[in-house]
TrEMBL record:
Pfam family, one: Inositol_P
Requisite cofactors: Mg(2+)
One GO biological process term: inositol metabolic process
UniProt organism field: Heliorestis acidaminivorans
Superkingdom field: Bacteria
Keywords tagged on the record: Hydrolase, Magnesium, Metal-binding
Family annotation (InterPro entries): Inositol_monoP_metal-BS, Inositol_monophosphatase-like
Residues engaged in binding Mg(2+): E69, D85, I87, D88, D212
Official protein name in the record: Inositol monophosphatase family protein
Gene3D superfamilies (UniProt xref): 3.40.190.80, Fructose-1,6-Bisphosphatase, subunit A, domain 1 (3.30.540.10)
Amino acid sequence: MLDSKIVVFAKEIVRCAGQELKKAIQQEIICTYKENDHRELLTEFDVKIEEYLIHHIKNNYPDHGIISEEKEEKDDLKGYVWIIDPIDGTTNFINFQNNFAISVALYYNSQPCLGIVYDVMKDHIYWAISGRGSFVNDCRIPPRKPPLLRNAIADISLNSIESFYYKEHIKLFDLAKEIRGHRCSGSASLSICQIALGNIDIYISAKLKSWDFSAATIVLTEVGGYYGNPFAEKVDLTGTPITFMASSSQAIYQQVCERYFCLPKVAVT
Ligand code: 2AM
Ligand code: CA
Ligand code: CA
Ligand code: CA
C-alpha cells in the first residue's frame, strides 16, 4: 500500500512547479530545438521544472530512481522509480500558453503505483493510485462507458506519422472515415486523461516515450481504459520511443488494432 505522505508530497511539488509555469507565461518564452529537429522544441522551463522536481524527490526519497525527458542519464526500473515529463506539450506552452501538463508517475519494480497529470492552466490535477480509482482534483472520475467505434473521437498525433515503424501497415485515413471525428491536442498526457474523462475514445502516436504516457495511463486504466503498442510489441518504460495507442476499452483497442493496424506478413522460407 502506497504511503499517503508520498501522494501529498507528489501533488505538492507538481502544484508548486505549475505555479512557476504560470509565472513563466507572463514573459516571452525563448525556445531552442532539440537535436536539429525543428519540431521538438525546448525551453529553459522544461529544464528548470525538471530540475525542481528531481531536487525535491532526491531530497525526500534519496534511494528512488528517476527517468525523465530532459535528464541525461536514465535509471533502470528496479525499486521505486519516478517517471517525469516536466512540460508535456511544450509547443502548446510556447504557442498558446495553454493545454500543457506536468506529468509525474511513480512505479515500483515496473508496476504502476501513482500517476499525476497537472493541467496547469485549468488547475486540474488528474491523479490515481493503482487499485483505488482516479480523480480530477477532489472528484472521483466514474468508470468509462465506451461507445461504438463509429461514435468515437480519436486524437491522432500527426507529428509522428512519418515515423510510424510500419507506416504502410497503418490505415489511419480509413480509421478517420469510420469514426465520428479526429482531433490533435498536442499533449499526450492530457489527451489520455480526456479518454479517462469520457470526452474522447482513442489516442494514437507513433513516437511516444514513457514520460509522455506513464502517469496518464494509470489514471486511464483505473476507470477501465486500455493502452498498449498496437503492433503488440513491449511497452517500454525507460524512454525508448514506441508506437502507442490508448482507448476507452480493451474492446475498442482490439477493434482498432485488428482493422487499422495490419501487421506485416512474415514470409515463410
Ligand atoms: P513534449 O511536449 O513533452 O515533447 C505532441 O504531439 C505530443 O507528443 C506531446 O505530448 C509531446 O511531448 C509528444 N512528443 C513526443 N515526442 C515528440 C517529438 N519528437 N516532437 C514533438 N512532440 C513529441
Ligand atoms: Ca519534448
Ligand atoms: Ca511529453
Ligand atoms: Ca516534455
